[in-house]
Amino acid sequence: MQNSNKNNSRNLQSRFYKILRRKVFFSNELKKALLVAYYEAQKNQTCVNLNLLLYGLLSQPDSLAYRLFLTALSKYQNNTSLNSKLIKTKIQKINKQNLNDKGLKELSIEVLNENKKTPWLMPEVKQTIITSINLALQSKKKIVVVTTKNVFFDLLSNELIRDSIRKLID
């Protein structure tokens, strides 16, 4: 009887450790979005807030968040080419000035490392990233990639972000 109890506890422990061994990575688009938001905040001498994070997400033309936003915008205003071209050119002009790909690997390590202080991130942004990671971890995969789509959908749950998107559209 004691052997079966020991085996059960070992099985539970091994299942627990398997869950902990899962790896979480940021997609390259999400890393670039965080860098764009960081450089924009640095230029304005502020911290990265939710609006700057949204700006960073929408500034990546290859990201899922950008494509979802343009699809929703075109459905909303019934004009696909004009809106997407205007937004794309405005964002690309700003990106040419701000984006450096050099710090991508260090950035993901800094954000995920809880021991390291990241004073350039507002608490709401950290909470959004943590919520996005938890959302991505709901899948059963061993290696989980947090994409811009995860963060974008979490941002849409915030009323201030929805208001700023309404202002951007109108």
From TrEMBL:
Query: What are the alphabetically sorted keywords of the record?
Result: Plastid
Kindly provide the name given to this protein in its UniProt entry.
N-domain of Clp Chaperone
